[in-house]
């Protein structure tokens, strides 16, 4: 098997550390570069470099052309860099700081790893993915098949919370529930009517469940009480994302995942606009993966009247977040 190089940007952080641990265990990976602006990343790299797996682990900061060395030759780059929320903040409150971080990292990826698959974790995902796309476009290296907003944590939460509601808390792995739209509050649209296996949840139980999936992030922010947001569940979700992508791109599988992608240049992307009745450029949907990354965007499928209502509530906020990210991406280059 050809072993590949992965890079984690923000590797010294709350998500970055456990995500680096899980990434170093992926059998497709021969090298993991851990990049962070904080020098503590060298300690994280030293620690993980003792694992007896296939991966060689190296740490980098900005010094000595660190970003260049971390990214050069990387086939996949995951980005959990930037500030997390504190109680009372929205994800959009992080935009001011995280948008610049994302623009700078996107510029580095364009320069040193232009063919890499990119997984954007940094919030607000609804806007940071457009920042990445606009930066990569301006640098002439944008490939819509390879840029993913990582919304896997919403999928993970949906499986877990549905299993709990139906009284089978140990059965979360058996439930697959699409979550479409974006990754922020009301823009997160769980499609419980398409749950596999199907579930019979309605009325107040359904609205409480949907609200919990939409605001699961807030639940963790509140419980951490100023110490940040979800890190371990995000690392778990990020690892699920990375494993699914690498198994398709390098392992010959054609996995289907949900991700926040740029629709206009992807096969099947236009059909989503007709299905949801709005011309949004970015949307979290099911995508079929292949050797090149996204092979095609899969239809949203039938929504219940309740879910159609959630979609209508989501679209204005999603649209505004996209406009903000695109505007920043275009103006700051
Ligand atoms: P954290 O503060 O613990 O870690 C962030 C790391 O990024 C720090 O080590 C910091 O030094 C580093 N960093 C800052 N600027 C950088 C730069 N320019 N280049 C490289 N590294 C840089 O935060 P965290 O809890 O790990 O969260 C990181 C981000 O992920 C936040 O924006 C958070 O909102 C987001 N997040 C997203 C999801 C999701 O579902 N997509 C889930 C949880 C958290
Ligand atoms: C989450 O969903 O847990 C993340 O987006 C972090 C947050 O700010 O809630």
From TrEMBL:
Q: What are the protein's UniProt keywords?
A: NAD, Oxidoreductase, Tricarboxylic acid cycle
The biological process GO terms on file are: malate metabolic process; tricarboxylic acid cycle
The keyword NAD belongs to this UniProt entry's keyword annotation: yes
Example GO CC term: the record gives: cytosol
Query: Domain Lactate/malate dehydrogenase C-terminal: where?
Result: 151-327
* Entry-linked InterPro entries: L-lactate/malate_DH, Lactate/malate_DH_C, Lactate/malate_DH_N, Lactate_DH/Glyco_Ohase_4_C, Malate_DH_AS, Malate_DH_type1, NAD(P)-bd_dom_sf
Q: Which CDD domains match?
A: MDH_glyoxysomal_mitochondrial
Which domain of life, per UniProt? Answer: Eukaryota
Can you state which reaction this protein catalyses? (S)-malate + NAD(+) = oxaloacetate + NADH + H(+)
**UniProt binding sites for substrate:** 85, 91, 123, 157
Binding annotation for NAD(+) = 10-16, 36, 98, 121-123, 234
| SUPFAM superfamilies named in the record | LDH C-terminal domain-like, NAD(P)-binding Rossmann-fold domains
Keyword match NAD? yes
Which residues does the Swiss-Prot or TrEMBL record annotate as the active site? 183
E.C. designation(s): 1.1.1.37
Q: Which family does it belong to?
A: Belongs to the LDH/MDH superfamily. MDH type 1 family.
Protein's UniProt name: Malate dehydrogenase
Organism, by scientific name, is Wallemia hederae
